[in-house]
TrEMBL record:
<dbReference type="InterPro" id="IPR020471">
    <property type="entry name" value="AKR"/>
</dbReference>
<feature type="domain" description="NADP-dependent oxidoreductase">
    <location>
        <begin position="22"/>
        <end position="291"/>
    </location>
</feature>
<dbReference type="InterPro" id="IPR036812">
    <property type="entry name" value="NAD(P)_OxRdtase_dom_sf"/>
</dbReference>
<dbReference type="InterPro" id="IPR018170">
    <property type="entry name" value="Aldo/ket_reductase_CS"/>
</dbReference>
<dbReference type="Pfam" id="PF00248">
    <property type="entry name" value="Aldo_ket_red"/>
</dbReference>
<dbReference type="InterPro" id="IPR050523">
    <property type="entry name" value="AKR_Detox_Biosynth"/>
</dbReference>
<dbReference type="GO" id="GO:0016491">
    <property type="term" value="F:oxidoreductase activity"/>
</dbReference>
<protein>
    <submittedName>
        <fullName>Aldo/keto reductase</fullName>
    </submittedName>
</protein>
<dbReference type="InterPro" id="IPR023210">
    <property type="entry name" value="NADP_OxRdtase_dom"/>
</dbReference>
<dbReference type="GO" id="GO:0005829">
    <property type="term" value="C:cytosol"/>
</dbReference>
């Protein structure tokens, strides 16, 4: 039985010249649990030592509903300031466009401020990828595009992306941009399969966008499945995991990575061992039968 191809050693971000590891590490919980810069540095090194060079954060990470806005970026900034050699070893991505206590803001003035503030907290002159975190329905995409194009032209941002955008919102922003989008970041997991069938991944392939999957483990539900559907998906993943000597977590990452759109799963763990474990996903082979078995379990109905 033929096997699907393994992911490449590196992937290119969209049509940019930026090469990244085919799996990423995300920092939405970096600033929790009283972590110090030394603690954060250990996590950064765990990712880099495992060959995970793509690091994703956001200005909202660390916000608890009342305070903490920017804390994850600031903590990573301390790490980068403490070891100047780290910056060149990573591809650094962040996001903006959410303004507590307001929901979303992509007005020109706020976006310019958000980008500058992120650079200041991270203590860097530029980021490799800057993404709009969630779409602002009150912002005209042409106005948003002007700000993003200016950020690229100024050297503050090398590549652009969106997160949680609909197909139409992505297309509208792409239409007005001179520096075209490189990435899209939806929620994708073996328990969240909307993107496979609603056209989002088809659009990504058509536009040349690299998809980044947030919450690739279904918000932790794959680790402790409770519903019949979740248990069925876990069992389908376990069949491959056990045969190849990896964890269910690794199997879940690799299942996403087998898709032809080149999905990059974002590891959300803040545990060094779990971060390093994720790199094993590059070695897992899937057959079409095994891959579709997971999809059928997630859909809950047989293939037509």
């Amino acid at each position: 039985m033929s096997e699907l191809p393994l992911p490449p050693a590196t992937r290119r971000l969209g049509n940019s010249d930026i090469e990244v590891s085919p799996i990423a590490w995300g920092m939405w919980r970096l600033a929790e649990d009283g972590r110090t810069a030394a603690d954060a540095a250990r996590l950064v090194h765990a990712a880099l030592d495992a060959g995970i060079t793509f690091l994703d954060t956001a200005d909202i990470y660390g916000f608890d509903g009342k305070s903490g806005f920017g804390d994850a970026e600031a903590l990573l900034g301390e790490v980068l300031a403490g070891d100047a050699s780290l910056r060149d070893k990573m591809v650094l991505a962040t996001k903006g466009g959410i303004l507590p206590p307001l929901p979303y803001d992509q007005s020109a003035d706020y976006l310019r401020e958000a980008i500058d503030n992120s650079l200041s907290r991270l203590k860097v002159d530029s980021v490799d990828l800057w993404q709009i975190h969630r779409p602002d329905i009150l912002a005209h995409p042409q106005e948003t595009a002007r700000v993003l194009d200016d950020a690229v032209a100024s050297g503050k941002v090398k590549a652009l992306g969106v997160s949680n955008f609909t197909i139409a919102q992505t297309a509208a922003l792409q239409h007005f941009l001179g520096h075209k989008l490189a990435t899209t970041q939806p929620e994708i997991s073996p328990l969240r399969i909307d993107c496979f069938e609603n056209g989002e991944l088809d659009q990504a392939m058509m536009l040349g966008l690299t998809p980044m999957a947030w919450s690739p483990l279904g918000g932790g539900r794959l680790a402790a499945p409770e519903t019949a559907r979740d248990k069925a998906v876990a069992a389908a993943l376990d069949a491959v995991a056990e045969a190849q000597g990896v964890s269910r977590t690794v199997a879940a990452y690799s299942w996403l990575m087998a898709h032809p759109a080149g999905i990059i799963p974002i590891i959300g763990s803040q545990n060094p061992a779990r971060i390093a474990e994720g790199a094993q996903a590059l070695t897992v082979r899937w057959t079409r039968t095994e891959w579709y078995a997971v999809l059928v379990a997630a859909r809950g109905v047989p293939l037509p």
